[in-house]
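Subject: mismatched residue count in predicted assembly?

I count 472 residues in my input, but I want to confirm that the predicted structure covers every chain. Input:
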Amino acid sequence: MPKYWPKDADACFDAPLSHSAPLLRMKMIARNCPVQETDTAKPSARFEDLRGILRYVPQFRQRVFVIAIDGALLHQPGFPSLLQDVAVLQSLNIEVVLVFGARSQIRILAEKRGLTLSSDDGMGRTDLPTLEVAIEAITRQSSELMADLTALELPVVISNALAVHPAGVIDGTDLEFTGRIERVDAETLGVLLKADIIPVLQPLGYDSRGTTLRLNSDAVAVEVAMALHAAKVIFVSEAGLTNPDGSRLAQLSVADAREMYRSKDARHDVNLLSKLRYGALACQEGVPRVHIVDGSQDEALLAELFSNEGVGTMIHADEYQQIRKALSSDVPALLSMMQHSMEEAALVSRTREQIQSRIKDFFVLETDGNPIGCGAVHSYDEENRKVAELACLFVRRSHKNRGHGQKLVAYAEEVAKQRGCDVLVALSTQAFRFFEEKMGFQVTDPSALPTARREKYDRSGRNSKVLIKALR
Ligand SMILES: CC(C)(COP(=O)(O)OP(=O)(O)OC[C@H]1O[C@@H](n2cnc3c(N)ncnc32)[C@H](O)[C@@H]1OP(=O)(O)O)[C@@H](O)C(=O)NCCC(=O)NCCS
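Triage response: the counts match. Full output below for your records.
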């Protein structure tokens, strides 16, 4: 399995996937429905996308995903589709645990009853009247959720796998019926998961004296994920996280997530701040990835997990690497990074304008936002074949011999294939052995170059070795 998969680990594709058609197709295949072709997209193009999506499947198989859904989403029109997406994950042998929140339902019921809640999120004080309303709202919600999941033929059980104590007195306030999770019965949850049963956890717990206590659903999700060594926690939220300019915040380090929570970032409500807090905790305690997706968007869950770019925010514990298309703003950093290799003639000297004019062909490998390598794929249409050239392959000296060069070449091969090229060529004065020995290229004659490229080759006088690799 190549290590570079989009968004979540490694990016292999030139263009972002268009979500709907391939995801719909995946849903239908996973649910054993006949797939019908439409006129809007060519079947071959959509199979390409589907292939991209299915590449994630082995990576996710038998891994635990804890999915925490905000209560407010349960009554939105897109909710049945969200549950279908959960069914798709389960049919792909992903072990799904469902957790749901109930803040919205508790508020609505309290308003109906004319009750002022002591708190609504399972973190502040829960007095007895608030607990009673919470139990009623959550029980009703559990029942509705069970009905919906049963209608999808999903085996589910509501589980009481949490050992809970009263949260106690915090900052001088007795939190009364608010609970703190002491332990998770991972063994029981594991047995259910191995039997293909989805455990559903409510934001309620029961202590050893038989008292019911109100819990925060984000805390439940994270405690369960840590106990089960889950691969992911996915918070399906009422809204998504944004940058100051309103665009989607695609990824966050643990430190950034914690800082946004600590500074009570004004763009985001308490609900999202809670997810930042618990998301950071989960990553810090060993859950590799936490995703926060806007559940009001169609197919947000699948698109986040199976698309190149994702649609939500990912909090990551470790150094995050990705290969992405280069932007004009990358040009100065690329030039300064490659300066030395240009001086040593390992790379052809290029000006800012030359890179800028072909920026669409360039891609960048970055680690935690810093470029550490790059490459470009130029394509040439000949009469009887389509040729791609891998140019400007470079890895920073400080990052050499860690497999980055090979990842960049593998990425370039994917790009060339997606553009329908038959062969990939590379010109090299000093790294030809790398292409031959590590990447399966063969040294060939300059006559293998496309005509337009051959003229430039002859003019340059560099006498580079010409390497070629068949893509089909
Ligand atoms: C060539 C280059 C991209 C390789 O990047 P990298 O990230 O160090 O490569 P990887 O870590 O994927 O691969 C390392 C392996 O390739 C070998 N390798 C790296 N550069 C090599 C070279 N110039 N010649 C022969 N083998 C080479 C290493 O010895 C190592 O082999 P090993 O695994 O058996 O120990 C990098 O050295 C570079 O940027 N060179 C300068 C620019 C250049 O020459 N670009 C090519 C022109 S298009």
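The pocket of coenzyme A is lined by residues 341, 346-347, 393-395, 400-406, 426, 428, 430-431, 433-434, 438 (CB under 6 Å). Marking this ticket as 'not a bug'.
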